[in-house]
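Narrative summary of target 7.
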Amino acid sequence: MALRFLPLLLLITASCSALRLGAGDDPTSLRVVSYNIRHGVGMDGELDLERTAAVLEALRADVILLQEVDERCDRSGGVDQASALGERLGMDPAFAPFMDFGGGRYGLAILSRLPIDSSEVITLPPGQREPRSALAVVVRKGRQPVRVVNAHLDWLEDDTERFAQATHLSDAIAAMDPTIPTVFGGDLNDAPKSRTVLAFERAELPWHARFRRIGPFGYTFPSDEPARSIDHFLVAPSNLWSTAEVQVVREPMASDHRPIVADLVP
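Modeled conformation, tokenized:
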């Protein structure tokens, strides 16, 4: 084992001990991770997708939401990152492109250890800098179908486009099958009490799509000295979910965001 991986492995081990990994072994629970991986580039400026994979592997998730994912882009060595991480972790990938970029495509992905019954790409109102999409999949935990939605919203300081994207996405989820409970997560680029996040809790939404933010209750960005909480998990219908644990993983190097982990019981 290369010596340069030892600090990372020690850090992951300590972080996962704090997360009580046994909770993920509960057959009734669903462990979901959300992680903006910055196409595998860490705070040291190094492209290292294996380092990203090691962080994710240690978290033993059922479903992983990834933001800033490259598909065969020049800057990341032409690798289909969602497929590569899925193969490395023994999970099935689904990818939602934002745009063509650098010889390939750039977007977000969901990896699932559970069977994926369906997937849907939701086109969001475009930002000034780049278009945006969300990705919704339906997985099956035992006999229970669960919808999992991943989003990465606009990052500009002016929240006009970000709020428009949040409103559009919440309305799109409201139009989906009301009998399937939903876990929604991702990099929303806004604070817990912002109008962006609160758009998913609007009173005018139908009961099955009125979300409740469940955490994490800690900072996620930047990863080396976190000072902002911009990565979130929400669930709907809020009264059908029990939250066992929602935490920020103490991983300061593999990306500019820290991963977040939720153990849920639908």
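The domain at 23-265 is CATH 3.60.10.10 (Deoxyribonuclease I; Chain A).
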